[in-house]
Amino acid sequence: MKNAGDMQVQVIDHPLIQHKITLMRKKETGSMDFRQLLEEITMLMGYEITRDLPLEEVDIETPICKMKGKQISGKKLGIVPVLRAGLGMVQGMLNLIPLAKVGHIGLYRDPKTLKPVEYYCKLPDVADRDFIIVDPMLATGGSASEAITLLKEKGIQSIKLMCLVAAPTGVKKVNKDHPDVRIYVGALDDSLNEEGYIVPGLGDAGDRIFGTK
Ligand code: PRP
Ligand code: URA
């Protein structure tokens, strides 16, 4: 894991993640494999992102003797996918944290203005809960920044952002708008093209997950 230059972002560049992102980038990779790889990478990234979860001691007994074991303490977690593409990361996170609650934020990027348009928001109870927003793509950063703002407006203070592929523009926007939010990405790409797609990127994540065009 490393920080990237002047940007506040942690690139989780484990070899398995790099390998699997390469497979996802290939244009010939179909939806079934794309979804499977996204779930696998989400689990690998989720392992790192949950590294600071608090532990507590618990008295247990092995077949040999009594001991003090460790368990995740009662911290409440919320996973919030940004629809649609963020849905592809939910199961990976739930595989790791089965008791997490799942909220949904519906945003789409207007193709002309590239600004996010909200169409849905449903969150679990937010009191004392830490939230992880998941979305495969951080391009201009408009959608992620808006999603974070929506959570903050509900009184949520502890927010992490987890994306598969990011462009520097998006990282810088979220850093500027929400300096308190830690960003985790699997790859930090070069730039955006004129349509706001990440270069080299992997294309339209939602379309590739769901087989739409
Ligand atoms: C994609 C992606 C992000 C957003 C990133 O969603 O899943 O939410 O674009 O772009 P930005 O950083 O420039 O805001 P999209 O708007 O294509 O909607 P979809 O997931 O429903 O296809
Ligand atoms: N949304 C995507 O799905 N892909 C990009 O490259 C940018 C935004």
TrEMBL record:
One GO MF term attached to the UniProt entry: GTP binding
Residues engaged in binding uracil: 198, 203-205
Record keyword Nucleotide-binding present: yes
Pathway stated in the Swiss-Prot or TrEMBL entry: Pyrimidine metabolism; UMP biosynthesis via salvage pathway; UMP from uracil: step 1/1
Chain residues that bind 5-phospho-alpha-D-ribose 1-diphosphate: 84, 109, 135-143, 204
CDD domains: PRTases_typeI (cd06223)
Matches recorded under InterPro entries: PRTase-like, PRTase_dom, Upp_B, UPRT, UPRTase/APRTase
Catalyzed reactions: UMP + diphosphate = 5-phospho-alpha-D-ribose 1-diphosphate + uracil
Catalytic activity, EC: 2.4.2.9
Cofactor comment: Binds 1 Mg(2+) ion per subunit. The magnesium is bound as Mg-PRPP.
UniProtKB keywords: Allosteric enzyme, Glycosyltransferase, GTP-binding, Magnesium, Nucleotide-binding, Transferase
Cofactor(s) essential for the protein: Mg(2+)
Record domain Phosphoribosyltransferase: where: 11-212
Alphabetical GO biological process terms: UMP salvage; uracil salvage
GO cellular component: a single term: cytoplasm
Mechanisms controlling activity: Allosterically activated by GTP.
Enzyme class, spelled out: transferase
PANTHER family xrefs: ADENINE PHOSPHORIBOSYLTRANSFERASE, URACIL PHOSPHORIBOSYLTRANSFERASE, CHLOROPLASTIC
Known role: Catalyzes the conversion of uracil and 5-phospho-alpha-D-ribose 1-diphosphate (PRPP) to UMP and diphosphate.
UniProt record similarity statement: Belongs to the UPRTase family.
Protein's name according to its UniProt entry: Uracil phosphoribosyltransferase
Species for this entry: Megasphaera hutchinsoni
